[in-house]
Amino acid sequence: MANNIPISILELAIITQGSNAGETLQKTKEIAQLADSLGYNRFWLAEHHNMAHVASTATVVLIGYIVSQTQNIRVGSGGIMLPNHSPLIIAEQFGTLEILYPNRIDLGLGRAPGTDSLTAQAIRKDFYEQSQQFPQNVSALQDYFSVENATAKVRAFPAEGTKVPIWILGSSMDSAALAASKGLPYAFAGHFAPKQMLQAFEFYRDNFQPSEFLEQPKTMACVNVIAADTNKEAEILSTSLFQMFLNLIRNDRKPLQPPVDSLEGLMSEEERFHVNQMTAGSFVGNKEKLSIELKKFIDYTKIDELMITSPIFNHQDKLKSLRIIKHMIDAMK
User: Fold this and answer.
1) Which of 159, 177, 156 is nearest to 168 (CA)?
2) Which of 28, 68, 172, 324 has its CA 20 to 30 A from that of 233?
3) CB atoms within 10 A of CB 188
4) What is the pLDDT of residues 201-257, one digit of tens each?
């Protein structure tokens, strides 16, 4: 049942047409502060590179800023792309954040580069090899956080013993298998790759091995949710989301586009097919419509937590959408 399910936010810090990185980071802070005041559970930021219209490239820096500007909400990564980094450095960074802001930091880990292959090579020459070493690097990271690492030759000060919660993020069966084998919580990227979501959750639950971190499976799905006072208004707002995915398919690097009255004539049949596949995990409408659809989704997937992302062009429309969604989820309880 959907009762008492925590709801969280994934913020991609997307720069809208006519805006810039400075304004976007200011808006990101305001979104986090609103989410904090409304009682959202987590506020996660993603790692992307070489994307002119994404302002969260220095993810750890932005996490530090957002957690400093909020009071209670957990702040973390959705995710840190571990093959881009040394596990030692990530342990040091997140251990430091946890000491500064106790019990408020999450570390979500992904295997992808968060960019194109050329940029992945610029970040790290051995990116491909490191992506193959993802399970071993997750283990290395866990070791650096552990109290037992006190006897090791290489230690991650001041991370030892900080117990930063690690989540495995993914959009495939590989990530589900890894999260299950390590007894870690599992978050699925249904906001852009929903195809294997149910299968991945089932596999994860069936194969979950209890660990010192988690006794029972713990799942979270991230989906696109856009709310407004009326279904028609929400549909218009959602056209920015669909244009964003269309531009992704076309490799057309545009900022988030303003909404349009209709998507008619904007894409070919083939493009529409691909956009529809990528956005199948999207919920658009007024409070009543979303309440029915999200409750069905939560019950069907049996998730323990819902994470939403809401690419909405106008800042005030986005803040209003987040208010509607939180009030609607609260009313389910």
Assistant:
1) 177
2) 28
3) 30
4) 999 999 999 999 999 999 999 999 999 999 999 999 999 999 999 999 998 989 999
